[in-house]
Amino acid sequence: MQHFNMTQAAGNRYNFPMKLGDFTARLTADILYPLLGAVNTMPGLPIRPVYYEIDVDLETGKVVGLS
């Protein structure tokens, strides 16, 4: 993706140079947002929680579904 100089952007009162980095899409939330500079983001949650796959084997008493 191309980087843009956002010096003339709305809300930039003091002409502070902002480098627009990449755009990130969160498809499950239907949003697209820009990253300004080096930003670390957190991963999203899965659609189906993993705890649905955890169970107890009634014959052996052991927990199954954990790796």
Count helical runs: 0
Sheet with most strands: 3 strands, antiparallel
- As a percent range, the share of helical residues equals under 10%
Q: Whole-number radius of gyration?
A: 22 Å
Low-confidence stretches: none
What does the overall shape look like? rod-shaped
Query: Can you write the helix and strand succession as a string?
Result: EEEEE
Strand content: 25-35%
Question: What is the typical, i.e. mean, pLDDT?
Answer: 76
Number of strands: 5
Order of adjacent strands in the largest pleated sheet: 1-2-3
Helix vs. strand class: mainly beta
Distance between the termini: 38 Å
Structure commentary:
- 0% of the residues lie in helices and 30% in strands.
- With 67 residues, the chain is mainly β.
- The strands form 2 sheets. It has a 3-stranded antiparallel β-sheet with strand order 1-2-3, with no helix packed on it.
- The protein starts with a strand and ends with a strand.
Task: Summarize the entry for a quick read.
The protein is an all-beta fold and 67 residues long. It has no helices and five strands.
